Amino acid sequence: MSPPITLDIAPFLSEKSQLWKACGIRGLFPLEHIPGMISLLAGRPNTSTFPFDSITMKLKPTLAGMPAASGDEDPFTISLEEDELNEALQCVPPLPTRLMRAEQWLEKFQSHVHKRVPDASWDVTVGSGSQDLMYKACEALISDGDHILLETPVSLHSASWYKTPGTLGFLAALPGTLVEVRADSEGLNPANLETILLNWETTHPGKPYPKLLYTIPSGSNPTGASIPEHRKIEVLKLAKKYNFLILEDDAYAFVYYGPEGQQARSYFALELEVNGEMGRVVRFDSFSKVLSSGMRLGYMTASPRLSTVVSMITSNTNLQPSSLAQVMAYALLSRWGPEGFLAHCAGVAAFYRARRDVFERVARKHLSGLAEWTSPIAGMFLYIKLLVHPDGRDADSEEIVRVKAVSKGVLAVPGTAFMPLGGATPFLRVSFSLIEEDKADEACRRLREAILEARAEAVAAASKNA
Ligand SMILES: Cc1ncc(COP(=O)(O)O)c(C=O)c1O
């Protein structure tokens, strides 16, 4: 067997990535740790002037059970005081810090979860949510003239729900051309991907092959689909053959509630085994679904060369992700340990499994024969196909969702909102994360009325045309 190759990411970096320079002052901070050094460097405020004396976090008995705590510690209380508090309140980390320790913790965690030995091919960078890191990674990678393969339907994240055409939120503001790769009930379809690549020179004469593939492998937003491992393997092989990077946006990885022990391994876990190489996968994880979405913490696992550019963009724009959020998360994670955190996530996932079951029960009650969907094994979405036309033709959900459903008092997202390049679709997305059973029942009853109205119109139109 030939030795593993670490992909050189340099040829993938954008022209703009060269323009980001390390912040001069920050580059000097490591010298502060030299014993005896007196630092007059930073224009930091003095933390003694801040009004906080301590911050105490009271934990819920976790969804999974008791978090681990050592000795006499109260297992449900974490207090940030003195040095730890100062570190949480200060912008620039003064010591070998919790912030760096959070990244070190996460490196060990990634190694544990994805069975990747720590080596020079990858590292972990914390950001203000995974979307912040995705944007910066795309900024570091995409130049004018590049093509980006985009799993479709795809979440527009911050785009307003009534914005029909357009692109994945921030990608719209970046250079590059989006190429849709259709997903189905099993996520990204490698056969569709291969067709696009096989025909590339005909469909895109004179254009370079795509540089990136963006995909949501678990509990996709919006489709709820999770791609099985055998498909990931095919996608990885295509990535090597056609030399593109895989941006693995796995925000729902910890919200997996399918059969125990059968969660597909990540692209990051598989790349070495499948392709004998490392560094082609850029992975994004998020704490938003399992710790707090307001803390705005996510992490990127990627080639250190890419991480350096992303960190340079951060240090020149928002300086760093919130210290307070990082110190809080680190205090919790280091107390729980990897297994405690994963047990907590399993509890969160069980919560959403129960929500899914309730929603599907009432959806079946009201929508049988009028709609169909694939039951998700991760995440918090159902992607519902409306069955409107008696002859089985696909309907366009747009008017039904925006007009009929709204007038009956129920809101959902029309599938058009997830089509980067526009186009009709019979789907709509519902989220079952927040909704209680009585409201879910009423929502599905109202949706039924909207679909029945659309169906009556479709039948009338068909008989008029007959
Ligand atoms: C697929 C996907 N990725 C990323 C995000 C954003 O994650 P974060 O809150 O870590 O920025 C979301 C938002 O909900 C999402 O649905």
TrEMBL record:
Residues 124-447 form the Aminotransferase class I/classII large domain. CDD domains: AAT_like (cd00609). It holds the Pfam family Aminotran_1_2. Transmembrane segments: none annotated. Gene3D superfamilies: Type I PLP-dependent aspartate aminotransferase-like (Major domain). One of its GO terms (molecular function) is transaminase activity. Signal peptide: none annotated. GO terms for biological process: alpha-amino acid metabolic process. Belongs to the class-I pyridoxal-phosphate-dependent aminotransferase family. This is Pyridoxal phosphate-dependent transferase. It comes from Mycena albidolilacea.
